[in-house]
Amino acid sequence: MMHKTDDYGWKSTWEQAWDEPEAVRLLKNAGDLVTSFEATGARMPQRELYHARLVAAHAARDMADYRDALNGYVEAARMASREAARQKAREDSLRDHNYHRAGRN
């Protein structure tokens, strides 16, 4: 197995034969994860870029790039979910602070 660097660290250049049933399974699993993250109200920025990367990897029939693209897609949704949770916590904290500050206990 060989490796090369990319913007995110080391990336495998090992080539794996395209496996359509595996690609479908991976896509379904990633889609389920993204759906669960988005159920929290999170919306990932630049969603179209992740879709474009998935389409390109699928068209090239490159399993390694396809897996990387799916992992990036899921991670972006996870980060958006975390940010949405932080934002909600800030809003709740501010609302509680203002409620108590107004003398309502």
Structural class: mainly alpha
Termini gap: 64 Å
The overall average pLDDT, rounded, is 83
Portion in helices: 55-70%
List the helices and strands and how they pair.
Elements: E1 3-6, E2 9-12, H1 20-38, H2 47-60, H3 63-101
Antiparallel strand pairs: 1-2
Helix pairs in contact: 1-3, 2-3
Please supply descriptive tags for the structure shown above.
105 residues; mainly alpha; disordered N terminus; two-stranded antiparallel sheet; single chain; 69% helix
Protein described:
With 105 residues, the protein is mainly alpha-helical. The chain has one domain. The protein contains three helices and two strands; from the N terminus they run ββααα. The protein has a two-stranded antiparallel sheet. A hairpin with a 2-residue loop joins strand 1 and strand 2. The longest helix is centred in the last third of the chain and has 39 residues. The termini are far apart. The N terminus is likely disordered.
